[in-house]
From TrEMBL:
Any single GO BP term: cytokinin-activated signaling pathway
Protein name per UniProt: Two-component response regulator ORR9-like isoform X1
Domain Response regulatory: 18-156
Modified residues (4-aspartylphosphate): 88
SMART domains listed in its UniProt record: REC
Biased composition (Low complexity): 174-190
CDD domains: REC_typeA_ARR
Name of the coding gene: LOC113846702
Origin superkingdom: Eukaryota
Region of interest (Disordered), residue spans: 167-191
Cytoplasm listed as a keyword: no
Keywords: Phosphoprotein, Transcription, Transcription regulation, Two-component regulatory system
Organism classification: Eukaryota, Viridiplantae, Streptophyta, Embryophyta, Tracheophyta
Organism: Abrus precatorius (Indian licorice)
Length: 218
């Protein structure tokens, strides 16, 4: 039963896992949409430029004064969350590497979100540059379902965090419940024995006092 519940929770977490995809090629976006759907990731947002991605994340220079309103916490409150960002490397206006640098820059609210770079060109120096710049993975196009399987650990991270937090909460609740039971049991025991125990103590004290008075009068 516990295994079944864990599987159900895992599926729910995967369904709520949200991927932000940035790619100017409509065919590549459609392909990735199908691959994500087949890999049990139901929630994804597709944008066609790095500038739109920055605006979506609240990282545009013009939106700095609104950064607090588009922080991860505020987006989550509005039902929006970004767990993974996938971006093409070659895009007009802003490359995927430039987008990566903006996301990973000091002070960015999204610097801890994993970023995956995609490219149709297998250039070792470019791959090394992106990985050293903070990219989690560098995938070659056209993407296949096996490429998405490499990202499965990221899909499951929210579930793992939820499980650990849920386990900790249950442990704390169990500890508090045990302490409360111990207190209640101790109180009930004291309450149950108080009348009789008090009477015996008072009777014994009276006898001792009487004997001492008699002894002193001799």
């Amino acid at each position: 039963m516990e295994f079944v519940n864990s599987q159900m929770l895992k599926q729910q977490q995967q369904q709520h896992f949200h991927v932000l995809v940035v790619d100017d090629n409509v065919i590549d976006r459609k392909l990735l949409e199908r691959l994500l759907r087949d890999s049990s990731c139901k929630a994804a947002t597709f944008l066609d430029s790095g500038v739109k991605a920055l605006k979506y994340l609240g990282l545009l220079d013009d939106d700095i004064h609104n950064a607090s309103s588009t922080s991860p916490e505020s987006l989550q409150q509005n039902g929006i969350n970004v767990n993974l960002i996938m971006t093409d490397y070659c895009m007009p206006g802003m490359s995927g590497y430039d987008l990566l640098k903006r996301i990973k820059q000091q002070g960015s609210s999204w610097k801890d979100v994993p970023v995956v770079i995609m490219s149709s060109e297998n250039i070792p120096s470019r791959i090394s540059m992106c990985l050293e710049g903070g990219a989690e993975e560098f995938l070659l196009k056209p993407l296949q379902l096996s490429d998405l399987k490499k990202l499965q650990p990221h899909f499951l991270k929210p579930f793992d965090h939820f499980s650990e937090q849920d386990s900790a909460d249950r442990s704390i609740a169990s500890h508090n419940h045990t302490n409360n039971n111990d207190k209640n049991n101790s109180f009930n025991k004291t309450k149950a024995m108080s009348p009789e125990h008090g009477f015996k103590l008072q009777f014994a004290s009276t006898i001792v006092t009487t004997i001492l008075r008699f002894w002193n009068s001799l």
